Amino acid sequence: MTVMKKTTGRVTLPIEENFLKETKELMERWGADALRDSDGTTMEEEMKRLNAKIYTTYFVARGRNAFAEQHPEEMQQLYLMSTYHTAVDTELEVDFLQGYFTEQIEPDYRHDPKKWWEVIDRTTGKIIESSNWELNQDHDRLLVHDATPWHEYTVSFLAYMKWDPTQMYNHITNDWGDKPHDIPFDARQPHSNQFVKDYLQDWLKENPDTDVVRFTTFFYHFTLIFNNLGQEKFVDWFGYGASVSVAALKAFEQEKGYRLRPEDIVDQGYYNTAFRVPSKAYLDYIDFIQKFVAREVKKLVDIVHESDKEAMMFLGDNWIGTEPYGTYFKEMGMDAVVGSVGDGTTLRLISDIPNVTYTEGRFLPYFFPDTFYEGNDPVIEANENWLTARRALMRKPLDRIGYGGYPSLPYKFPQFIDYVEKVTDEFREIYSEIKDTKPYSGIKVAILNAWGKLRTWQTHIVAHGKSYKQTYSYYGIVEALSGAAADVTFISFDDVIEYGVPNDVDVIINAGDAGTAFSGGIRWKDERLVSAIREWVYHGGGFIGIGEPSAIHHQGRYFQLANVLGVDKELGYSLSTNKYVTETLDHHFITEDVTTYDFGEGSKYVYALSDETDIIEYSDGSIRLSTAPFGKGNGVYMAGLPYSHENTRLLMRAMFHAAGKEEAFNKWHASNIHCEVHAYPEIGKYVVMNNSSSRQETDVYDGSGSVHRMTLEPSEFIWEEIRDEG
Question: Start and end of every Lacto-N-biose phosphorylase-like N-terminal TIM barrel domain (predicted)?
């Protein structure tokens, strides 16, 4: 890494008790100008007097057990579904708490289960009349009468959540022993609603040294349920399950004009994850919760501003209803958003947020004992995190960076302290050069799925920052784009149906497994959608399908845009029809300088519709990469795209080919796939970056048609002046 000039500012450091001297040292070395506490730490008075902005963590709906215990009826609630139970006779006893952690949840018997619970015959999908089942509350059992033998049954039940999931996770991870369990209470309930405002006003008076109130976060935690062993059972970073209550259901019916079923929330046990094509009822519920949360958050933010303090929102924990790309976010009046940065995608998720004064990223690794232990080298994770995040910084920088956890842990690793010192200086240099400067983009791409802009930079996330076998082949797309010289937008199927494809879009990408919200599932049966995209591509647009794009079996097609892509997938229905087109090209623009690439899990049994399809990669009896003309436009098919430097280059070349802009590909360009060029015409500069941990040589195309050779040391970047073409 290049030795940077020592700078200060734009860095937030976590604190820890009895660590004052070392904190001063870290502040000086890392140039930190802000200090923050964390869950489980308290800032000492001496630290508050240091020359730094003070962030104080504030929990709105937990951490006030004295109040919560006085109003147990206002604990947060959620709908849960039992495991499937098979009837072997006409009477079936269901242990509906089986597999759940009873330290976290308890059944809600305060509200009439006959009205608010639901028993379903999962073999037929029929609701069992409430007169045909009864509860044994003493033993938490439900008895189904007149059951049909060998049918499966589930119980959807309301429960109270009596332990906040994040505090529970931290409690277990850090072995907090007998520390009290934080009880979450519901701001929709009358006592709680008044309490959160009154307590905040009193708290602000008691914390005059606080400059930034770091809300962590507001009312409703993303869905995180633990099993009977205290392990994560179900986690959905977008889950609205913990926002449900009888009060919410009644208010929803009054506002929307119809009543939700428990099934609208439990969703056959899928709980409406972001991978499910959302129903109208669930979209209405999201809108309903967001509107309520925005209104109530605005009241709290106003109280903070009246005390001349800033309001910062942590993008995580209790963030449900505050989605920053949603309709109502701007109404909250937040000053800042801070979130965890695990890679380039999560950085852009934060840095692109509109309607705030500044954004901040909490970099990894977290200062917890699961990383900082004897024998481990935390610099490895820190370097990987920085190199992936830095690509995205070059496109849209955060305003600040920081870390979390207990600083005494990394303090025992001098090489890590040295490395972060270099990172913070490097961040400040990048920021000072390009803040508020629009980078050059050679192409504009729209990611098309069911969520559109609401989930900007959030496709294929299960649990924030974690990779899964069935997602990494698609998540790599947004990771590649997060730091690429491309404008990226996110559009929904409804957007296309109502407004068409935006005029400035060059390429559309639709990617995902069949039936998911990201591929589209049943939405592709809408003739308006397929017709709009076919017309757009025919007149010159580019369409890239990855995995199982536009996939639903309908009218003899599986890929509903098979005619655009030039390929379809064999389901076993057309095995009697010969498929002769399997010959691959010797050369194609898309793979011109990419010798190795990876399609991940990759969809199988994809075949060409005709000899107009150019097959670029074919293996194991399936097309992995191909392209086909459609009118004046092009369709490109890929089996999958995990993130790598090679795959990033492959995707960029595919986009330029699909858009018919091959001649513009080398305008600002590095020939070495481990390097990238970012140009900023407004300030007359460009930067050449080595995104690897090894020395690299590359040809650099400088935007004027000239090419020169450069050598970059590991992780190095070099600024250059843009030559006057005149």
Answer: 9-440
Burial category of 351 from C-beta neighbours within 10 Å (exposed 0-12, middle 13-18, buried 19 and up) = buried
Catalytic residue among 186, 317, 506, 513, which? Answer: 317
Residue 619's pLDDT is: 95
Q: What is the pLDDT of residue 1?
A: 45
Three-class SS state of 489: strand
Cβ burial 470-496 (10 Å sphere, 16+ → b, else e) = ebbbbbbbbbbbbbbbbbbbbbbbebb
For 131, residues 6+ apart whose C-beta sits below 8 A from its C-beta are none
**What percent helix, strand, coil does the chain show, rounded to 5?**
30, 25, 45
Cα–Cα nearest to 158, from 68, 92, 241, 236 = 241
pLDDT below 70 — which residues of the chain?
A: 1-5, 465, 725-726
| Overall number of domains in the chain | 3
Is 693 inside any structural domain?
yes
CATH number at residue 692: 2.60.40.1180
The token duo for 327 is 């309709």
Task: Tell me what pLDDT residue 5 has.
Answer: 67
Instruction: Write down the pLDDT at residue 726.
Output: 44
- Paired tokens of 712: 């970059």
User: Tens digits of per-residue pLDDT, 586-633?
Assistant: 999 999 999 999 999 999 999 999 999 999 999 999 999 999 999 999
Tell me the CATH number at 554: 3.40.50.880
Residue 422 belongs to domain spanning: 11-66+164-239+274-434
Q: Which of 643, 664, 685 is the last residue of a domain?
A: 664
Question: Are 569 and 657 within one domain?
Answer: yes
3-state secondary structure 674-719: CEEEEEECCCCEEEEEECCCCCEEEEEEECCCCEEEEEECCCCEEE
State whether 592 and 694 are in the same domain: no
Residues 416 and 535 placed together within one structural domain of the fold: no
Distance in angstroms (rounded) separating the CA atoms of residues 404 and 367: 6
Q: Are residues 383 and 488 in the same domain?
A: no
Residue with tokens 């990201």: 518
635 within some domain? yes
| pLDDT for res 170 | 85
Domain shared by 678 and 643, yes or no: no
75 inside domain: no
Statement to judge: residues 286 and 299 lie in one domain: yes
Regarding whether 413 and 289 lie in a shared domain, the answer is yes
* CA geometry: angle 142, 144, 146, nearest 5 deg: 170
- Does 318 lie in the same domain as 416? yes
Given this model, what pLDDT does residue 238 score? Answer: 97
**Taking the model in full, what pTM does it have?**
0.96
Pairwise CA distance, residues 294 & 603, whole Å: 41
Position 412 scores a pLDDT of 97
The answer to whether 138 is a known catalytic residue is no
Amino acid at 360: E
Spatial distance between the Cα atoms of 53 and 64, rounded to a whole number of angstroms = 26
* 53-58 and 212-215 strand pairing: parallel
- Which of 403, 434, 465 finishes a domain? 434
Q: What does the pLDDT read at residue 725?
A: 55
- Whether residue 122 is contained in a domain is answered as no
**Residue 723 pLDDT:** 86
